[in-house]
Structure formats: structure tokens, C-alpha cells
Amino acid sequence: MLDVDVVVIGAGPVGENVADRVVQGGLTAAIVERELVGGECSYWACMPTKALLRDAAALRAARALPAAGQAVTGTLDPAAVLARRDRFTSNWNDAGQVEWLNQAGITLLRGHGRITGTRTVTVTHADGTTTTLQARHAVVISTGSSAYLPPIEGLADAAPWTSREAAAVQAVPERLVIIGGGVVGSEMATAFSALGSEVTLVSQTRLLPGVEPFAGGYVADGLRTAGVSLQLDVDATAVRRDDAGVHVTLSSDRTVDADEILVATGRMPNTKDLGLDQVGLAPGSWLHVDDALGVVDDAGNPVGAGWLYAAGDVNKRAMLTHHGKYQARALGDAIAARARGEQADLSPWGRHAATADQRAVTQVIFTDPEIAAVGLSAEAAAQAGLKVRVVDYDLGAVSGAALHADGYRGQARMVVDENRNVLLGFTAVGPDVAELLHAATVAIAGEVPLDRLWHAVPAYPTISEIWLRLLETDGR
Fold it and tell me: FAD/NAD(P)-binding domain: from which residue to which, for each copy (predicted)?
């Protein structure tokens, strides 16, 4: 048996950050990983997918300017795009991240970890041997999530891609059908159409239902312009694969033929075989947590007498890598503080409270055009019973945007709390709007009154001038 202060199950970005903060706080930590150290983000999500998208975005940006567009000759080279993607995944070799763990003083155990008792985790290694870890203070579950496959007739037998296969693709298919119109589906439609695939995207809903409708509308227009066939408000009812490829039957009675099918219809928690039954929880379930990220049951009671925690996708609070790492920093510091006999600061916006997951969730969607969003949408604010006003402005009318690209199209929106006159939400859609996001995040997290935002003067001529235009439009 190996005794350590904290055991972390899952060595993705979230688990790495928990373990690192624990060690920085003076404790010892062991981290358990059954796949690659670095997790989904490093090898099958954030990094490889953005590498697939970046070359095409740069090419579009050059072509949006007359002189630069004339200087660009030829077309995108898919092989070069995939080679650059491979560099960002280190060719799916985690040696560099393992070295980082060693330098940070974190003990790595490769294998599958299961809870087998109070603060006890048993690791089964690839050769069948086991190691038992006993935690003095805490066990943290940060095992993330996996792609969900819906019960569509014939789908499981059709060898579908999930986000993993799409991110790690070695050859671009001539025809690709995507089931799902969320972030993954929209980004991969953007990427593969730019790489030369004939793409059809099928969605039960409007495109990108999680963001403001106007933002999803801009992306839908962009995909159609790129040649993507959008089948919206339509279900895939059956899938069949034969020697000619994949055939998808739609509820509209149309059949879509393709070489590959990508399913992007949501995520499910990686908790099926973690020993959750040992602490009275159902295997395969999302883990509910309290304000301290301690695992609780359906009634809100602490599980495991306060020693079991969950961070990242697995608690479903904000399924984004940057928010998982934010949770991890707060949690690791809190565990270390408690171990020193200190009380964790869980006050609103306190050092150990992950309150941004409730008020200021940030997201960039790397489609064409980009979407940047933080906080509440107008619909979400209304559903929460808040009295708000909505302020919209045409990004293309901003001088900095007009200089940025000929024919710049986009829109920005503020959602303002009427009672407190502070920003509750911000959404922008347009080329390169990602860099607008952090200013909005600071305004929301800092609860900066709009009267004070008038004195945050944007540089001219930049796209950030949108802030002045929104305030002028608001007129208060």
C-alpha cells in the first residue's frame, strides 16, 4: 500500500492542476491515468481540433483583404494541416507531460483506478497487477467525459466517428455526414469543409442551440457559404454502412450518403467503473457537488464523509477545459488549506469557491465566423426571472472591424441587469471576436457598473470599439 495525502483519478488538465496545487500547498499527491497523461484536451479535443481549424481561418483572413488575397495562391494543403496537428499532439506521445509530472513532484500510476474503501483507491495496471493507494486527506475524481452515441437504428454497427476519431483523422474523407449541431458538430463542419470534404450536418434543433440565436444564425450562413448542407430540425432515424459507404436516413425521408459519419450529440460521464457503489452512488452517473466541489448525493448530503471530490466535466457544472482547470485550482488550494488546519474561503468570489461556473462561464466557438460568449444569454436571464435589457450592435459598423476585413459581418450583444446596471452576459459573433471575450469576462466577474465602463476607453481603431458603441446604444 502506498500512503499519500491526495489521490487524483484522471490525469487530464483538471487532474494535473489539482495535483499541482496540492503539491504546491505542501502535500503529496498521486495521480492515476489509464490512457495518456494530458487527457482529452491535449490529444483528442482542444489542441488538435483548433490546429485543424487554424490554417483555414488564417487563409480566410488573408483573402478578406484585397492585396493579401492576391498574394495568396494555391489551396489549403490537408497533409500539411494534419502534420501541424500531429505536432500539437506530440504524435499522441505523452512523454513530455509525464516529465512535467515528475518535475512537479507528482507520483504517476498508470492503470485504471477504482474506489475500494474509505479514501482508498486500487489501481489495476495493464499487466493485471494492482497497487493500493491510501489517501490521508482526499480523493479527487477528474475522469472527464466521453462522446454519447444516441440509440439510432444501425448506428453502433456503422463504425461511427466520435470527436476522438475526427480530431485524430489521418485522411480527409471525400464525404462526411455529421450528426449534431452543437459546438463539436459546427466546428468539425467548419474544419472538414475547409479541408475539402463534402459535408452534411444533421441537427434536431437550430444550429448551436446553447448560444444566442443570432450567433448561431451567422454560423449557419457561414457554413452554407462554405458549401455545407445543413439539415436542421431533422432527426437521423437509421444508419447503414456497406461497401459504398455510410447511408443515413432522415426524418424528412431523405437519405444522405457519405464515406464517414461523425456523431456529435453530447457527452456522458466517465464514471462507469470507478467503484462509486462503494460510496452509495450509481455507476455511470454525473457527480453532483457542493460549493466546495465535494461529492454529494441526490439529497445534497456529503458522500464519503467529506473526503471525496469531483472536478471538471464529470460534475457537469461547466464542461469546458478552462473552467475545469479553474475548479481544479480552487479545489487543490482548498484541500491543502484544510490539511494545514485552515478554513477554506468559500464566500462568494472567495479564493476556494468556484463561483464563475455559476455567473461567468466563458466559451469561444472556433467556427467561421467565431462566437465568443460569457455569462447569461437573454433567454437564460429571462428563464432565471431576472429583469434585463438587451443591447445589440452591428460589428461591421465598427471602424476597427471594417479595417480588419473587407465586408466584415458580425454582431455583439450585452445583457444588462436592470436593477444593478451591471453586465450579466455578452455574446459576439464575427471574425476574430475571441479576443473581445476577456474584457467582458472581467466586467461580469467584477460586477462593474455600466456607468464605470464608460471610462474604460477602447483604443481606436480596434474591434474593441464595440464597447463604446454598445454603451452609446444603451444610452444610460
Answer: 5-327
